[in-house]
Amino acid sequence: MSARLRSLAVALGCACLTSAVAGAQPPVTDSVAAAHARKVADCRRPELTCDAAQLTEAEAAALALFRHQRNLADCGAGVSTCDQAMLTAFEARDLAVAARERHLTRCKSGMASCDPSTLTAGETREVAAAGHDQHVSDCKSSRTPCDPATLTAPEARAVAAAQHDRNVTDCQYGWDGCDRSNLTPLEAREVVARDRERNLDACTEGRDTCDYAVLTPAESRLLAAAERRRNRAACRTGYGYCDRARLTPAEAATLTPEGRR
Asked: Is 203 exposed, middle or buried (0-12, 13-18, 19+ CB in 10 A)?
């Protein structure tokens, strides 16, 4: 082999070795980029330290915007990490208005966190009106003791009507709280009819709330016929309680050998 060929072979071998070594290691630029990305992400976490000097101009601008928006959200939520100094004048004004509206809402709802001393005269009237409306609503539903002396004449009539309607509903469904003495004659008849319907349903389904003594002759016959059909089907199919003694001779004759046992 000539000296020139040997030199070329050595050069190619060195080049291949260099490429193999380079391919066995990750590019330096990739590890640097990953480390930088972690620093950018860490800057958005308040519990970690951040070296803003290592950020690009675009990254620093994005971080500043992120921190401003996060602080605005913290201030709006009343979080202790809120920094009022970072707010613009318009943001501070809007947040103050929102906070006052929330406080007024708490006062209207009767919450203990309300501070009446901070209310204006107009807001105090609004709170009083809201409290009165709530009292009227409570009187209608009888959720709390009602003071009739605080009601106007129209409110008193509305409360009486609501209480009467609720009593009618309680009586119609057989609920506790029903006062039949407050029913009109028509309402009383309707309630009695609903009572009979519920009792007939209970008797038909065999519930222990059935009162056979209040059934009309027609209801008793209807119930007896339904029970005969049920007993006949149970004896014939072998499913359910069967009382063969209640079958007619003709019905008993139609039973299968299994049904006769």
From this structure: buried
